Amino acid sequence: MSAVEASGVETSGVEVAAVPAARAARAAPFRFLRSELGLIARRRRNQAGLAVLAVVPIIIAIAVKVANPTTSGGGQGGPEFLSSITGNGLFVALTALALEIQLFLPIAVAAVAGDAIAGEANVGTLRYLLTVPVHRTRLLAVKFAGIVAGAFVATATVAGTGVLAGLLLFGGGEVTLLSGTTVGMGEGLLRLLAICLYLTACLAALGAVGLFVSTLTEQPMGATIAIVMFTMTSWILGVIPQIDWLHPYLITYWWNNFGDLLRDPVAWDPLRGGLLSAATYAVIFLSAAWARFGSRDVTS
What is the H or E stretch that residue 165 is in? Predict the structure, then answer.
């Protein structure tokens, strides 16, 4: 006699089957996310893109080592970091981030975002994916999570390669911040991690724009080009002084403020402005993607 029979409680087959079914339903979103992350990681073009991102800080480190500059650069962004590389290899990562945020990092995010929905439609898997069934809102959420993860990996690849190349060629030690304060190497690495997270948030906003564009077409390359053009237009408009009233509303306006994390004390106001701008863009364009994709007839 089984324990169920001995207890005098009858359990139907449906109730017994409902337990693993419920567990499977709870685990489904995580399996879907793991599958999406694996798909992004396995794509050859994404792997090639990461290789390109990693090469730039290596080139910077070698070029500075060979040239051995003795004069400090002026201005903001890359040149200011570039002048500090010989003093501490950590600045190779900062210089690479300052340079690659202008073009290479947005292209990397555009490639992932443009392929999110348009790529599935292009190869004819979108319709079958939705018949698994996968709710369209969950699909968009998983796709956006994959874009954010891709943005972080791209940023971390640049920073990590820069740190390794810089420490190998120039060594480490204490880090002199932009405000002149000196901090230990450990705090310097923590500030670099904070910079990576800040840039990931900024690039995630671009990813939200890309996800919306990806719902408008079945051609991933066209979506990628549109996202890159959108980014370049924002950079161009940002240097025209006659429309300075528009600058704070541009998606790229706040990106270079990551340098404020290298001041003592940290200049939080520009960073909060950047995070607010990123959140606003993300909410607007994720909502637009949801509205578009929710009402779209999927035929491929």
Answer: helix 136-170
Q: Are 141 and 74 in contact (CB under 8 A)?
A: no
Indicate the pairing of strand 182-183 with strand 175-176.
antiparallel
The tokens of 193 are what? 């991690």
Distance separating alpha carbons of residues 48 and 37, to the nearest angstrom: 16
Q: Return the closest-CA partner of residue 49 out of 101, 94, 111, 102.
A: 111
Cα distances (angstroms) measured from residue 115 to each of 30, 93, 214, 225: 21, 28, 7, 11
Q: In terms of pLDDT, which residue wins out, 54 or 5?
A: 54
Question: Can you say whether the dihedral through the CA atoms of 92, 94, 98, 100 is positive or negative?
Answer: positive
Asked whether the predicted pLDDT for residue 5 surpasses 60, the reply is: no
E strand or H helix that includes residue 183: strand 182-183
Residue 74 corresponds to which tokens in the numbers above?
């002026």
Choice among 3-7, 109-113, 156-160, 192-196 with the minimum mean pLDDT: 3-7
Q: What does the pLDDT look like over 240-291, one tens digit per residue?
A: 999 999 999 999 999 999 999 999 999 999 999 999 999 999 999 999 999 9
Q: Cis (ω within 30 of 0) for the bond into 79?
A: no
Helix (H) or strand (E) holding 71: none
Taking a C-beta distance cutoff of 8 angstroms, is the pair 99, 108 a contact?
no
Which pair of tokens denotes residue 151? 């943005």
Contacts 24+ apart (CB under 8 A), 97-100: 97/155, 97/158, 97/159, 97/162, 97/195, 97/196, 97/199, 97/258, 98/256, 98/259, 99/56, 99/60, 100/53, 100/56, 100/158
